[in-house]
Amino acid sequence: MKIIIICGSPGTGKTTLANLLAKKGFKIIHLSEFVIKEHLYSDYDYERDSYIIDPKRLVKRILLIAHKESRPIVVEGIGADLLPEKYVSLCIILTCEPGELERRLKEKKYPPEKIWENLEAERLNIILGEALDKYGKKTLVIDTTNRSPEEVLEIILNKIFRNHEDDKDG
C-alpha cells in the first residue's frame, strides 16, 4: 500500500499536479469532492463555506480503498494531512511566494478575506510546519512559484521512483 499526500495552500497547484499524476496511472482522491460524495464530514462551517472532515471516517475509508487498490494512491487537498504518518509514504508540500499566490487566488475569484487568510498561512508556513512535525523525512517541499506543473511533476516522479529503488536496495 503506497499513499502519497499532496498538501499546500489553495492556489499552489495541488489539483493540477494530482490530475497530471492521474495521467501517469496513479489513483487520485480529490479530498474536497471525496469528503462530500462519501459523507465523511461531521458538520458544515458556514463562516468558511466548507465541510468539517470527520478524521476517523476519512482515514478508515481511504485505507479501505488503499487495501483494494494496486496502484499508488494520491490524496490531494486540504485535510490530506489527517492521514497518520505510518500510512503515508510521501508527503508533498507545495508552496508559492505570497505575491504570486495572491495573483492566483484573485484569478480563481477568491473573496478578499479568504485570500488574506491563505496568504497569512503561506507566509507563516503553517502547512509546511505541521507536515514536517508529522511526517518528518517523508516530506518533500516544492516551491511552485516559478515552475510549470510539468516541472513539478518531474521532480515528484524522480523522488517517487528514487524512493522505490531505495526500498528495493534496503
Structure notes:
This protein is globular. Helix 1 crosses helix 7 and helix 4 packs antiparallel against helix 5 (112-123). With 170 residues, it is of the alpha/beta class. The two termini are 17 Å apart. Helices cover 49% and strands 21% of the residues. The strands form two sheets. Strands 2-5-1-6-7 form a five-stranded parallel β-sheet, sandwiched between helices. The chain has helices spanning 14-23, 31-37, 55-68, 98-107, 112-123, 126-135, 149-169; strands at 3-8, 27-30, 41-45, 50-53, 73-76, 88-95, 139-143. It contains seven helices and seven strands, in the order βαβαββαββαααβα.
Summarize the structure.
The chain is of the alpha/beta class and 170 residues long. It has a single domain, classed as P-loop containing nucleotide triphosphate hydrolases (Rossmann fold), CATH 3.40.50.300. It is built from seven helices and seven strands, in the order E-H-E-H-E-E-H-E-E-H-H-H-E-H.
